Amino acid sequence: MGKVEIRRTRLQDVNLIAEFINKSRPLAKHLPTLTIAERFSEVGFLLAEYEGHPVGLLGWQVENLVVRVTDFLIAPAIDRVIAGRALIGEMEKAAQQLQVEAVILFLPPHPSQEIIDFWETFDYTRRQIPSLNRNWREVAEEWRHDSEEVMLKAFRERIVHRPI
Fold this sequence. Notes:
This protein is of the alpha+beta class. It has five helices and seven strands, in the order βααβββαβαβαβ. The protein has a seven-stranded mixed beta sheet, sandwiched between helices.
């Protein structure tokens, strides 16, 4: 497999993203273009492309120096680790430029070992929300829906207690 290119998406990419999502998840409910367009006001997206075709998508938000990965999808026919490394690496680079403290990805109830192993490949650790430090726990509790566990990657040993 050659090089996976990563780029930030624009609203003009909404049809391309909708087609990619719906093709990559044939058994899932069809996502209308309008639903994806509305997400642009809440989430930043990174698109992975291989030979000019979308192969992965990562959505993320930043709040109170914590990144939350909101969306993550890699095409079934592509190497998950190669595309994942490119997407996650680009998101982490942008997060570090924003001086975030950590990245959080919420896990579904009873996550598969495959999901855990995948994120551990990128140095994320499985954590219970109550075990997080106070600031990260508060952010996680604002966002979570039915999840009690996250995959977490901390970027700083010292937590920011005053604005930078």
